[in-house]
Amino acid sequence: MIHHHPGDELLLAHAAGTLQAGHALVVGAHAEGCAHCRARLCTFEALGGAMLETLEPAHLAPEALARTMARIDGTAPRRTAAAPAPAPAATAAPGGWPDLPAGTPWPSSLAGCVVSRWRWLGPGMRWSRVTLPHDPAANVFLLRIGAGKCLATHTHSNSELTQVLYGRFDDGRALFGPGDFDEADGSIHHQPVVQAGSECICLASVQGKVVFDNFLARWLGAAVGM
């Protein structure tokens, strides 16, 4: 059962298409497995459509259509985080993607992304870079942390969205399990601890930086772009 969801402000921004690409990908990954949030997104999209219908018609500038078509022709197709796509099989990582535990599906919002192999981050900790085709600068990554291990205590210079794909962690605020979503910002100072008995794998998007308390953790975080 999913206990933690994106707030309505995030879902509304996602429905409006105003979220930064990395954050949109993580919200989309959550919505794939959460009927509650899919229903909320549908409601917000319907409200947006209704509001558009109430707007007064506006005259287009000369050559506006031609300029728009030229921009479309010159832009690579962009897949939004909410676009439906078949989820790759968990046991057959596509295109050299890293492995996931048996029975754990890849979020279909990652379709078209480049996902690196697992890389060492620390004892019992690995990470993988996720590169978005339409926004390569987006700071998105996977974390794979062993049972009983923890990230160093940290806060955030801006915001971090996290979707749990496998396992559980507790950061002192709540217990987050498979399918759960977490949003953290500079007001949150925490240390996620993976629960005993199983590793934990999360998909995360960071705007700004993760600000670690410990010098070594800050150095490692900077080295991997966190």
Structural class: alpha+beta
Oligomerization: single chain
How many domains make up the 3D coordinates?
1
Low-confidence stretches: 76-92
Number of strands: 12
Main sheet specs: 7 strands, antiparallel
Number of helices: 5
CA-based shape: globular
Overall mean confidence score, pLDDT? 87
The CATH class is identified as Mainly Beta
> Mind telling me which CATH architecture this is?
Sandwich
The portion of residues forming beta strands comes to 25-35%
Fill in the CATH topology. Jelly Rolls
- What is Rg? 19 Å
What portion of residues is helical? 25-40%
Spell out the helices and strands N to C: HHHHEEEEEEEEEEEEH
Instruction: Give the terminus-to-terminus CA distance.
Output: 30 Å
CATH superfamily: Jelly Rolls
Protein architecture, described:
- With 226 residues, this protein is α+β, with helices and mostly antiparallel strands.
- The chain has one domain (1-76, 95-226): Jelly Rolls (Sandwich).
- Helix content is 27%, strand content 26%.
- The protein is built from five helices and twelve strands.
- The protein has helices at residues 8-16, 21-32, 35-53, 64-73, 215-224, and strands at residues 114-115, 119-122, 125-132, 135-145, 154-156, 159-166, 169-170, 175-176, 181-185, 193-194, 200-207, 210-212.
- Strands 1, 2, 3, 4, 6, 9 and 11 form a seven-stranded antiparallel sheet that branches. The chain has a three-stranded antiparallel sheet with strand order 8-7-10, with no helix packed on it.
- A hairpin with a 2-residue loop joins strand 3 and strand 4.
- The protein is globular.
- Mean pLDDT is 87; it is low at 76-92.
